Amino acid sequence: MGSPLALVCSTALLLVVVSAASEEFPIQQMMISSSEHDTPTERRHPGFSPRSFGGPPMMNYPVQFPLARPSADNLQAVCLHAAHRPHYPDSYFPESGFGQLKRRASAVNKAESWFNTCCQGNDTWGNEATLCCAIEAWELSVQSFCEEDVSVKDRIYECCKKTGNNRLNCFHNDAPNPKYMPTQVVPMTERPFTAGFSFDPSTCQRVSKSRYSEKRGKKVETPATSETGNIRFPPGRPTADVIESLCNNQRQRPVYTLKCLPSSGYEWLARQAKTVNRIEKKFKFCCKKKKDAHNCTDKKWREELNKFCVAEKGKENSFRCCAGVADDRFNCFQHNSPDPHYNMTYATEELSLSKICDTHKLIKRKFPVGLPLGKFVIECCPLSEEEKTSCFQQKLMAMSEKQCSSRKMSPTIRQCCRTSSMDFQQCVSKIIMDAVTKATKFSQKKKNKVCPLI
């Protein structure tokens, strides 16, 4: 224990230090000032310093990703606040690791750089063409990101598993700053230019007014392709690197029906759908060869896309790759493919008891389990996903006594009845899940056609 005098002196010294610090750094005022400038995004994420200690490693390097779709409502902010939104130099991340975040940061950098190209042309082009430019830049950045994301053996960003407008909507809905408001108080230094994007206002197909074609003296609306199509076109070029996934994943790639398309206005989409269907049919033939599958698929791919371009010739707003010839044409198709590596398939669903709702009819026909699944469907399937699980468990619980006391039980259920109550539930759940799995695989054997229209 020190003397009372020493204690008094040390306390006084501490008060002097704290007083001086508060005068030099008004902490309370800084916190209030900071909160006044916080945006909703900044409240969710740490500040954009290279490191913020504590928390998961990914949170130490926050990235404002993805960016929202440019629109008439946010276009002004896209251009006006560009200097007050972050970009991410190479020095922002450590040299190794953080591959996912680096790809996201690169996508943001590309889009913001390309937005700058659009905004600089605003005085010459006007708002309509500038918006068209910004949308094309954003869509190209999304496409570029997904191409890179699916080519790496890593967890794929969820939106990249979707196609067409569903993918674009997914990115837009995930955006933390859809209004493109400023999130940096201090303006960023000049952004480095990112190559890979150019814009010609005369080729813009995204005019705010509807495009029309004449038919029998009436105006018939022809919708813009990127707004309405949900199709994986063009297919990627078969190469030696992708031939294995091309053949192995064929059953998991969609083919398209044309019955859902209106009688007019969607001829361009019908041509694309027919081309994909023909290419997939030829791929199936080539993949059976195995030894010469690569050369065969590449030849059929080129032949069908050339046929597609013949059909496109003279059409209004024909597919831009058809303007090229030979390798230029094929390189263009490859660059514009949403699935160049042939590793995008239907999203794999995690099978659970709730899949009974989709497969119960097939189970009853092909894989009977000796249980009254109709009661499951009637009482549990209308519920939410969370409530379905508990509903199924309750039904299994109630079923144990009733089924085991019945004289008309199936041999498989009889085996479950020889176990305890809890083991009975697990036993029956396994029987049902086996049937669900079989029914799901059976339904996937037949390649269902999907509608190429959103």
How is this structure best described in words?
- There is one protein chain.
- The chain is mainly alpha-helical.
- Helices cover 52% and strands 3% of the residues.
- The protein is built from 18 helices and four strands.
- α14 crosses α18 and α17 runs antiparallel to α18 (421-445).
- The chain starts with a helix and ends with a strand.
- The model is unreliable at 11-56 and 206-227 (pLDDT under 50).
Query: Radius of gyration, Cα only, in angstroms?
Result: 30 Å
Low-confidence stretches: 11-56, 206-227
Largest sheet: 2 strands, antiparallel
The strand order across the widest sheet is 1-2
**Shape designation:** globular
The total of helices stands at 18
User: Strand fraction band?
Assistant: under 5%
pLDDT averaged residue by residue:
75
User: How far is the N terminus from the C terminus?
Assistant: 80 Å
Helix share, percent: 40-55%
What is the number of strand segments?
Answer: 4
Order of helices and strands: HHHHHHHHEEHHEHHHHHHHHE
Structural class: mainly alpha
How would you summarize what this structure contains?
52% of the residues lie in helices and 3% in strands. With 454 residues, the chain is mainly α.
